[in-house]
Design a protein that fits this description.
This protein is an all-beta fold. It is built from one helix and 31 strands. It has three domains: about 190 residues; about 120 residues, no CATH class; about 90 residues, no CATH class.
């Protein structure tokens, strides 16, 4: 998701809660607000979804006030701020889900922040106001005897847009291979700092982490501004590029779906699909998800028959890939005050899939009230089921992905709305 931080902060301050919505939809789903953000010590404007641990506790991030935070919401709906970013050398603006690594530690990224050689990154990278960080969070080493015990942050990588390194890790969540190496994407950097994003690997050795750029995007036929990546069983990587800012050739205005495969000592890219900004959609802004048969599912934030994005499937077939449109969101982009370029109305969080093959997701500014929705697409006919349409006082503009709870319930966040206008954490049970 490419946006400007200052615009985000101003827009959030202007959000006003709208009239209350029903807590139960016509289909029998029960919507419950678990926490309403106040923009105080608990933070505000969550732009990501949540991660659920084995005990059913939720972990997520906020982007306000100041430079954002990482929080834990217990099964008793008690919110604890695990870490509040200072906006300098510790990072600024966590814009992707925090995830648990193989060692049980929380990992995440911040899109901005950091210093290199004593110089603030914004002095070098004016467009995004920082280079970004990859970090871990651990519980305090000693028993906590106070009401608030911040977790210990460790910076494992400082992104810096020179010498072909990536910068500004965006929305995509980190993923791990079987050896514990970390993979992700940046929306800036590469090509000696003037590129259009990278896919990178972080490897651990001798007590530290080393960044290796696997692929540099050129804003040509290969795409520009990648989101996160996922693995298949063979170790290939898959992802999407947002691909909107090509003011020169216009070769990649609408985004791509790509595959990275190992090639000798490096990686090579295969473009699986190029969006045309027609019925197929445009500007994918989320990670893909893969089913057990190797089919890929994703979303676009723009385009489609309704102009508000699409849900699509890519299936391997005869050595190539076949595109199938599953759903096109209706227009209704009147609810989001958060400035985007492009102004995406549709889904900007990754889909999730259940054991029956049904897909679940969020859309930013669609639904009955134009303030966002939670939806299900049922397999195999891909029937659209509205699980919740936001109305303002119950939240609005959900940018993040959903997560399954221990009993199949759905958890997520809305970036705005709620009683104080700074978003909510919610649960949907069926």
């Amino acid at each position: 998701m490419i946006r400007f931080a200052n615009t985000l902060l101003v827009a959030i301050a202007l959000l006003i809660a709208l009239p209350a919505a029903l807590s139960q939809s016509a289909q029998g789903q029960t919507y419950t607000i678990l926490h309403t953000f106040t923009n105080g010590p608990d933070g505000g404007a969550p732009m990501t979804g949540v991660t659920v641990d084995r005990g059913g506790n939720l972990y997520g991030t906020t982007t306000t006030p100041n430079s954002g935070s990482v929080f834990k919401l217990s099964t008793h709906n008690v919110l604890t701020t695990l870490y509040a970013f200072a906006g300098g050398n510790d990072g600024d603006m966590p814009d992707a889900n925090v995830v648990f690594g193989p060692n049980g530690i929380l990992y995440g990224t911040t899109e901005f922040g950091g210093e290199v050689g004593g110089l603030p990154c914004q002095a070098i990278s004016n467009e995004f106001h920082g280079c970004g960080m990859a970090f871990t969070l651990r519980p305090p080493a000693e028993i906590c005897r106070t009401a608030s015990c911040p977790w210990q942050e460790t910076i494992i990588n400082r992104f810096f847009p020179v010498l072909d390194y990536g910068a500004a890790p965006g929305d995509g969540s980190l993923v791990f291979d079987q050896q514990g190496n970390i993979y992700g994407a940046t929306i800036q950097g590469g090509r000696s700092g003037f590129g259009y994003g990278t896919v990178y690997e972080l490897t651990y050795s001798n007590g530290g982490w080393t960044e290796t750029v696997l692929y540099n995007f050129t804003d040509g036929q290969d795409g520009a501004y990648p989101n996160g990546v996922i693995f298949d069983s063979a170790g290939n990587l898959y992802g999407t590029t947002e691909g909107w800012f090509d003011a020169g050739t216009g070769e990649d205005r609408f985004g791509k779906v790509f595959q990275l495969v190992r090639s000798g000592s490096g990686w090579s890219e295969n473009v699986l699909y190029a969006f045309q900004d027609g019925a197929d959609g445009a500007a994918p802004e989320a990670d893909l998800v893969m089913d057990q048969q190797g089919n890929l599912y994703g979303t676009t934030s723009n385009g489609g028959a309704g102009g508000a994005g699409t849900v699509f499937e890519l299936s391997p077939s005869g050595g190539g890939w076949t595109f199938k449109l599953l759903y096109s969101f209706s227009s209704g982009c009147n609810g989001s005050l958060i400035s985007e370029f492009p102004p995406g109305c549709g889904s900007q969080g990754s889909l999730i899939i259940d054991s029956a093959g049904n897909l679940y997701g969020t859309a930013v500014s669609t639904g009955a009230n134009g303030l966002g929705s939670v939806f299900e697409l049922t397999y195999p006919n891909w029937t659209y089921v509205p699980l919740h349409d936001f109305a303002g006082s119950d939240g609005q503009n959900p940018y993040g992905s959903l997560a399954f709870g221990p009993n199949g319930e759905l958890y997520g966040t809305a970036s705005a709305g709620g009683q104080d206008g700074f978003g909510v954490v919610f649960q949907i049970t069926q």
